[in-house]
Amino acid sequence: MTDSANTRFVPPSPPQTGTFKAPEPAAPKAAPPPAKAENTSVQTPPESSTLNSKKSSRDPAIASSLNRVTIGNKAPHADDIRIIGGKNYDVRQPVPIKYPAVREHFLSARNNFWTPHEIAMGDDKIQWNTGDLTEEEIWMFKCNISYLTASDNLVPDNLDNAILAQITASEMRQYMRWQIAEESNHIESYFFILESFGLDEKGQGQIFSLYQDVPELVNKLNWNLDFTNNVVNCEHPQGSREANRALMEDLISYYVFEYLFFPLGFSQVFALARQGKLRNTAQQYQYIWRDENLHAINGRWMILQIIRENPELWDASMQVRTREIINEAVKLETAFGSACMPNGGIPGLSVKSYTQYAQLMGDNLLKTLGLNPLFNIKEHPMSWLSEYEMKQEVNFFEGRVRDYRVGSSLDWD
Ligand SMILES: [Fe+2]
Ligand SMILES: [Fe+2]
């Protein structure tokens, strides 16, 4: 093992009782930690926490699913179609396909469909119940699955409440609806994992509720929620610079979820699997990661296409703001890592490596948007993660490279 955690790891203190306690006291459930992130650069939540409490005014010329169908409404012309802000056509028309790449994403995603219940969980159940995991590993895993489950709620909530209504390209709307179903499938996976361990509803609930108890989890989730609410509660007209700016920031935060927060979270469980622990769970996470990869690919494609179509949105101030957002995200991820591993790491994964991985992904994200890196991490601190990355199923444009059948065993190459 080359990871520095192997030399730095300090075994946790023996528990005082048979019940595992958090290494650091969590805020009591009755008085949850404040929703506002301590990070001073994180935005202040809006006064109203109710999504959809206020709608931005709509321009009736902008294509919208709320626009009434009218007799004689012409089919869209490809030149008129835009990812956002397309005008004077009915958004329900599936043709012409302006963006074949997005349809390709949809078909690839559909080819990747999988179900959590088809992955055997028996080995993990034994390990979970026979003390194979250290208390530090258990704490990390509990924080991990709680955060990821809440995240897989926030992503579709963001798509549903803030983003989809702004999208004026039929194929992108179709893709996002499929994505929402996939995020739901991920929640089922997390639920199935804990259920497979033999935990009853109370036991599952104690784990899932950690996202409401641990400040670092609360802060990270609220950071994303604030971007969603900024779009939903924007008082400027749809299509205005201010409204598009709020949307662009939200899309960057959405891209952070898919490209940075999720892979970082998965890496914690892959580190366990690498030590021979919770390998069934890691297999579930591998399938989820493959989905999130495609979400990130589509998210990046969408942001770049919006910039192409609306270059004024990608001005100097937005580029500066994007770098700020990524910096905030990396800080939040680092704090999350420390909360999950309060003693500096577990065997095979140190907080130091985890932090560098977050910085590396932050830099890579910036580069994919044509921006300069912030951290200049030269080498992947956890290059072994590639062993856990699954290939995308090839879409129909290229033909399938292997026979993937829903209901078959879920082995991969
Ligand atoms: Fe997901
Ligand atoms: Fe996703």
Automatic annotation (TrEMBL):
<dbReference type="GO" id="GO:0046872">
    <property type="term" value="F:metal ion binding"/>
</dbReference>
<dbReference type="InterPro" id="IPR009078">
    <property type="entry name" value="Ferritin-like_SF"/>
</dbReference>
<dbReference type="GO" id="GO:0009263">
    <property type="term" value="P:deoxyribonucleotide biosynthetic process"/>
</dbReference>
<feature type="binding site">
    <location>
        <position position="292"/>
    </location>
    <ligand>
        <name>Fe cation 2</name>
    </ligand>
</feature>
<comment type="similarity">
    <text>Belongs to the ribonucleoside diphosphate reductase small chain family.</text>
</comment>
<feature type="binding site">
    <location>
        <position position="183"/>
    </location>
    <ligand>
        <name>Fe cation 2</name>
    </ligand>
</feature>
<keyword id="KW-0408">Iron</keyword>
<dbReference type="InterPro" id="IPR000358">
    <property type="entry name" value="RNR_small_fam"/>
</dbReference>
<keyword id="KW-0479">Metal-binding</keyword>
<dbReference type="InterPro" id="IPR012348">
    <property type="entry name" value="RNR-like"/>
</dbReference>
<feature type="binding site">
    <location>
        <position position="295"/>
    </location>
    <ligand>
        <name>Fe cation 2</name>
    </ligand>
</feature>
<dbReference type="InterPro" id="IPR033909">
    <property type="entry name" value="RNR_small"/>
</dbReference>
<feature type="region of interest" description="Disordered">
    <location>
        <begin position="1"/>
        <end position="68"/>
    </location>
</feature>
<feature type="compositionally biased region" description="Polar residues">
    <location>
        <begin position="39"/>
        <end position="54"/>
    </location>
</feature>
<dbReference type="GO" id="GO:0004748">
    <property type="term" value="F:ribonucleoside-diphosphate reductase activity, thioredoxin disulfide as acceptor"/>
</dbReference>
<keyword id="KW-0560">Oxidoreductase</keyword>
<feature type="binding site">
    <location>
        <position position="186"/>
    </location>
    <ligand>
        <name>Fe cation 1</name>
    </ligand>
</feature>
<feature type="active site">
    <location>
        <position position="190"/>
    </location>
</feature>
<dbReference type="Pfam" id="PF00268">
    <property type="entry name" value="Ribonuc_red_sm"/>
</dbReference>
<comment type="function">
    <text>Provides the precursors necessary for DNA synthesis. Catalyzes the biosynthesis of deoxyribonucleotides from the corresponding ribonucleotides.</text>
</comment>
<feature type="binding site">
    <location>
        <position position="258"/>
    </location>
    <ligand>
        <name>Fe cation 2</name>
    </ligand>
</feature>
<feature type="binding site">
    <location>
        <position position="183"/>
    </location>
    <ligand>
        <name>Fe cation 1</name>
    </ligand>
</feature>
<protein>
    <recommendedName>
        <fullName>Ribonucleoside-diphosphate reductase subunit beta</fullName>
        <ecNumber>1.17.4.1</ecNumber>
    </recommendedName>
</protein>
<feature type="binding site">
    <location>
        <position position="152"/>
    </location>
    <ligand>
        <name>Fe cation 1</name>
    </ligand>
</feature>
<keyword id="KW-0215">Deoxyribonucleotide synthesis</keyword>
